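Example S7 (structure tokens).
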């Protein structure tokens, strides 16, 4: 179970056609690759969360485009793509007193793993727990 800390960019957008296209095109033009993506919606707005190849450049580019991006540190964990592995991680974090504020992920069938992005608190404790799972 490999893990790392990464910077995530969150940006609120109007919930209307073309907003994701505009943001992803701007990032592509800036040479910024999207590694992980989550999109949420509600009646008034959408929320896009991105882990990119360059968080600082992403934030600067989105700011220049008139958005108000927010940067946060997230825990990215590569889990073996097998039943129960997410349960082991979630249970270990809960037992250690770590709250999962939100998470998103995707499976990579060719690599037989699941990449999970977790916003957790406290982050330092979460890293200690995941490290112990890696060693155990």
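Recovered sequence:
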């Amino acid at each position: 179970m490999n893990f790392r800390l990464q910077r995530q960019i969150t940006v609120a957008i109007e919930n209307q056609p073309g907003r994701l296209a505009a943001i992803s095109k701007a990032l592509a033009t800036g040479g910024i690759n999207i590694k992980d993506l989550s999109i949420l919606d509600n009646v008034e707005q959408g929320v896009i969360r991105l882990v990119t190849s360059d968080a600082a450049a992403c934030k600067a580019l989105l700011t220049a485009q008139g958005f108000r991006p927010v940067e946060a540190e997230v825990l990215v964990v590569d889990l073996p793509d097998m039943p129960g592995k997410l349960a082991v991680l979630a249970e270990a974090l809960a037992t250690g007193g770590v709250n999962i504020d939100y998470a998103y992920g995707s499976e990579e069938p060719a690599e037989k793993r699941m990449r999970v992005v977790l916003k957790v608190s406290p982050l330092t404790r979460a890293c200690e727990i995941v490290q112990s799972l890696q060693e155990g």
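Notes on this example. Strands lie at 2-14, 34-41, 45-52, 70-80, 99-108, 113-121.
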